Structure formats: structure tokens, C-alpha cells
């Protein structure tokens, strides 16, 4: 019983990770929780500094999950 519950929760984690990945082509390569110009360019080769700063609404120099989601919804990237 315990083993099957463990296996089931593992499947859920994998499914959640897969669907999160499907939403965005960007990967947080250095794992700092935000997307840098380099990470955005890796996913979107057409990325420019002007587009990056347009997506970076708060001007922090990094794209966070909310900013990326907004950019996807606004069709800035995708
Ligand atoms: Ca990063
Ligand atoms: Ca930002």
C-alpha cells in the first residue's frame, strides 16, 4: 500500500513537471528561479534587448514566472 502510494505520487510529480515544461520553452538553466537574457535567448533565438526589457516589466534585469506568463499571454514570445 505504501509503495503504491509512493509510486502514484511520483507519477503526479512527473506529470506536473511535464505540464509545467509544456507551458514554456524557457529553462532556468542556472536554477536561480528567474530567466536571464541568456536563458531567454536559448529558448527564443529572436530575443532582443528591447524585447527582453519589454517583458521585464519591473526592470529587474531578469524575467520571473509572472513576467514570462504575461509575455506568453500577450504574444510577445511563444
Ligand atoms: Ca536563471
Ligand atoms: Ca523582472
Q: What topology does this entry show?
A:
Layout: H1 2-23, H2 37-43, H3 49-55, H4 65-73
Brief sketch in words of this structure:
This is EF-hand domain-containing protein. With 78 residues, this protein is mostly helical. Helix content is 58%, strand content 0%.
Structural account:
This protein is mainly α and 78 residues long. It has a domain at 25-78: EF-hand (Recoverin, domain 1, Orthogonal Bundle). Helix content is 58%, strand content 0%. It contains four helices and no strands. The protein starts with a helix and ends in a 5-residue tail after the last helix. The model has no long low-confidence stretch (mean pLDDT 86). One calcium ion binds at residues 28, 30, 32, 34-36, 39. Residues 43-78 form the EF-hand domain. Residues 1-22 form the signal peptide.
Let me know the number of strands.
Answer: 0
The arrangement of helices and strands along the chain is HHHH
At CATH level 2, the architecture of the domain at 25-78 is Orthogonal Bundle
Q: What profile does the largest beta sheet have?
A: none
Q: Indicate the proportion of strand residues.
A: under 5%
**Briefly, what CATH class of the domain at 25-78?**
Mainly Alpha
Amino acid at each position: 500500500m505504501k509503495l503504491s502510494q509512493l509510486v502514484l505520487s511520483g507519477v503526479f510529480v512527473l506529470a506536473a513537471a511535464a505540464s509545467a515544461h509544456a507551458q514554456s520553452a524557457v529553462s532556468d538553466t542556472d536554477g536561480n528561479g528567474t530567466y536571464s537574457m541568456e536563458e531567454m535567448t536559448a529558448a527564443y533565438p529572436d530575443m532582443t534587448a528591447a524585447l527582453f526589457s519589454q517583458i521585464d516589466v519591473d526592470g529587474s534585469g531578469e524575467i520571473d514566472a509572472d513576467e514570462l506568463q504575461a509575455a506568453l499571454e500577450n504574444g510577445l514570445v511563444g
